[in-house]
Design a protein that fits this description.
Strand 1 (14-18), helix 2 (23-34) and strand 2 form a beta-alpha-beta unit. This protein has one domain: NAD(P)-binding Rossmann-like Domain (Rossmann fold), CATH 3.40.50. The protein has a seven-stranded parallel beta sheet with strand order 3-2-1-4-5-6-7, with helices on both faces. It is an alpha/beta fold and 258 residues long. The protein has helices at 3-8, 23-34, 46-58, 73-87, 110-138, 150-153, 160-180, 206-214, 228-235, 253-257, and strands spanning 14-18, 38-43, 62-67, 92-95, 143-147, 186-192, 246-249.
Length: 258
């Protein structure tokens, strides 16, 4: 291997990507596969998973799909058991499942609020509990990458419950980084700016697109593949002294609004 290859290599690693059937986490999964990791895609849609697995194979990698209800502790425990059975171990966990809604604040029903928090926050906490206990028990030098959001940092896009739920993900990531740092379990947050994806297309009205572009120095949306560099940095030995960080991949959005 060259120096750069050895620094970012994920050969021999197994990465569980919750939300890997989606656009952003799917691109993160492909990036890790290209670096040598075995990928476990976690979601509910087998058709989407099949398409993503083809992308992984095209990148020279390999992986498999596990259908899981990520809002269920029992489902997450079964997921871990299946991964250990099939792959022998797990080294990397990506928490990227998410749901969104543009409901105006005064109209948010309790059921919608509970559903968004169940997927965006509670599922992340439970996955970190289930996989964190496994990492600690087996002394694994693991990397947990939680997917946050710029709307948790600068809530301009008026997706109220989504913003709150993602802000909690940022907070738990920093708390776990402090809790597990001495155990060589790194916990970091990737913070995408504005990337068109299935969960946010319904909130991207013309007015909001103009607002976003006006605050983004690069004057465009991100492309899913542009999360690859940050993903590999946090997953590999290149980021071995990074924990509790938030890596913004936002086209400069934060620089215009802070």
């Amino acid at each position: 291997m060259s120096y750069v290859e050895s620094l970012f290599s994920l050969q021999g690693k197994t990465a569980v990507v919750i939300g890997g059937t989606g656009e952003l986490c799917g691109a993160m999964a492909v990036a890790m596969a290209g670096a040598g990791a075995e990928i476990v895609l976690v979601g509910r849609n087998e058709k989407k998973a099949s398409a993503r697995l083809r992308d992984i194979e095209d990148a020279g990698g390999h992986g498999y799909f596990v259908a899981t209800d990520v809002a269920s502790r029992e489902g997450l425990e079964k997921l871990l058991a299946e991964v250990v059975s099939k792959s022998g171990k797990c080294d990397i966990l990506v928490n990227g499942a998410g749901v969104n809604s543009p409901t105006p604040f005064l109209d948010i029903p309790e059921e919608e609020y509970d559903h968004i928090f169940a997927i965006n926050t509670k599922a992340v906490v439970m996955a970190c509990q289930v996989f964190g206990a496994y990492f600690l028990e087996h002394g694994i030098r693991a990397s947990i990458i939680n997917v946050g959001s710029m709307s948790a940092v600068l809530p301009l896009s008026r997706v109220f419950t989504y913003s709150m739920s993602k802000a909690a993900v940022h907070n738990i990531s920093k708390n776990l980084a402090r809790e597990w740092g001495t155990k060589d379990i790194r916990v970091n947050t990737i913070v995408p700016g504005f990337f068109p994806a299935e969960q946010n297309r319904k909130v991207l009205t013309d007015e909001r697109v103009d607002q976003i572009m006006g605050h983004t120095p690069m004057n465009r949306f991100g492309e899913a593949r542009e999360l690859s560099g940050a993903t590999l940095l946090l997953a590999s030995e290149a980021g071995s002294f990074m924990t509790g960080t938030e890596i913004l991949v936002d086209g400069g959005y934060a620089a215009m609004t802070i």
